[in-house]
Amino acid sequence: SVAAPVTKLPSKATTANDYAVKGAQASIADMEGNWDSFRFAPIRESQVSRAMTRRYFEDLDAHAESDIVIVGAGSCGLSTAYVLANRRPDLRITIIEAGVAPGGGAWLGGQLFSAMVMRKPADAFLREVGVPYEEDDTGNFVVVKHAALFTSTLLSKVLAMPNVKLFNATCVEDLITRPSNGQDVRIAGVVTNWTLVTMHHDDQSCMDPNTINAPVIISTTGHDGPMGAFSVKRLVSMQRIEKLGGMRGLDMNTAEDAIVKNTREIVPGLIVGGMELSEVDGANRMGPTFGAMVLSGVKAAEEALRVFET
Ligand code: AHZ
């Protein structure tokens, strides 16, 4: 929550003591032209440490039991989080992202080009989130002038939601399973570790992971790669599905429709969306067009909410 406006600083207040008035709020104009006497409010290093660690461990404590865990904060995972957190502010939503920087492949449009293409009707999502775009002359797609504008706007909205916590630089390295209906399993949570630890299991032994329980996991870890397609590859190695179809060659028209329509619960408790799904189904890739990623996120959120609404 945002603090209510409080004590106003005396005009041209620029010393540490001025800022130490509890709740004082400076304006940039107070500082301009006053740099000789400028000082920050005082702090002790341990206060910084406690301000960070207390919050982090409170979040770890609260999110150890989550309602929904989203694995991967690419364009699909972030879109999923946006829809879920808006529709159900009462649900505790956890996002686990292996990279330090959330956003996955959505910081550029394609190759090294800035503009991001979204085929209609995914422009509806841009309007809902408040991302500006221009219409293409064809009338069939819209263009965001920089993919980073899309990703940073979406990310800022998701991170500001009080029911969402992003743990970045953290990997999902296994799935929690439970017996269900006799011999079948359902997914009941995720096993996590710092990404740097996950990357070093071969040369550092005995570094056990952490866990998060949740009745619904939504995996959006992208297509196969060093980190990608994590959950569906694990479903194969735990013999829950026989084999992956493997992502097929690029066909924008076929790929985008298929990814959105087939976003679904693959095994009980595990919904898969975005390009991770192409690895299960043997679906085409679409390359540098992002409408399917955001609408797969909308569908993944709808599938997850079905669980809480029944
Ligand atoms: O870091 C990964 C990325 O940010 C993260 N991730 C992967 N494995 C993880 C794990 N634990 C936690 N085990 C993990 N995080 O998941 C994110 C995936 O983002 P993405 O942009 O790669 O996937 P997406 O499905 O949201 O969007 C894919 C967009 C396309 S289409 C396409 C093509 O057709 O060639 N290529 C891309 C990148």
TrEMBL record:
Keyword Chaperone part of the UniProt annotation: no
GO molecular function: cysteine-dependent adenosine diphosphate thiazole synthase activity; ferrous iron binding
Root EC class: transferase
Modified residues (2,3-didehydroalanine (Cys)): C206
Family matches, as Gene3D superfamilies: 6.10.250.2840, FAD/NAD(P)-binding domain
Key word Protease present: no
Cofactor: Fe cation
Compartment annotation: Cytoplasm; Nucleus
Annotated positions binding substrate: C76, E97, A98, G105, V172, D208, H223, M275, R285, M286, G287
Gene Ontology terms: cellular component: cytosol; nucleus
Family: Belongs to the THI4 family.
NCBIfam families on file: sulfide-dependent adenosine diphosphate thiazole synthase (TIGR00292)
Record-linked PANTHER family: THIAMINE THIAZOLE SYNTHASE (PTHR43422)
Protein's recorded name: Thiamine thiazole synthase
Species of provenance: Hapsidospora chrysogena
Record gene name: Thi
